[in-house]
Specification:
Blueprint (H helix, E strand, L loop, with lengths): L1 E7 L2 E7 L8 H15 L3 E5 L14 H11 L3 E5 L8 H11 L4 E4 L2 H10 L1
Helix pairs in contact: 1-2
């Protein structure tokens, strides 16, 4: 995992570059957050959808809720970047919509959108 930091609107944001899945369960999410914060000192993270286990996007597993609750508890803002149009679940679409209208977790199409969003909250 490579961590690229950048500053926008006076806020430090880290873009995580990865070659493998980084978040597969709650503990790996906690480890990921701790590593990013320790190595960069920032609490704003841009992460590719591919770095997250696919079961995360099946809300019946409750994995998304459990993991994103940890990000919220530890006050880490997360922008997940990818194509979410292939998901047909209405509940997932509603979840993404509600998240994007909040202030902690965002599901966006591009890195540019993700950085802009994290720089504005």
């Amino acid at each position: 995992m490579k961590l690229n930091t950048l500053e926008q609107n006076g806020k430090m944001i880290v873009r995580v570059v990865h070659e493998e899945q980084l978040i597969t369960d709650v503990q790996s999410a906690l480890d990921f957050m701790a590593t990013v914060r320790y190595e960069t000192g920032t609490d704003r993270i841009v992460l590719d959808k591919a770095a997250i286990r696919e079961e995360f996007f099946d809300l019946k597993t409750k994995l998304a809720g459990e993991i994103l609750q940890k990000f919220t508890n530890y006050q880490v803002k997360l922008a997940i970047v990818g194509d979410f149009s292939g998901y047909t679940s209405k509940s997932l679409k509603d979840f993404i919509y509600e998240s994007n209208h909040g202030r902690k977790v965002f599901f966006l199409s591009t890195e540019e959108e993700a950085v802009a969003k994290l720089a504005s909250v």
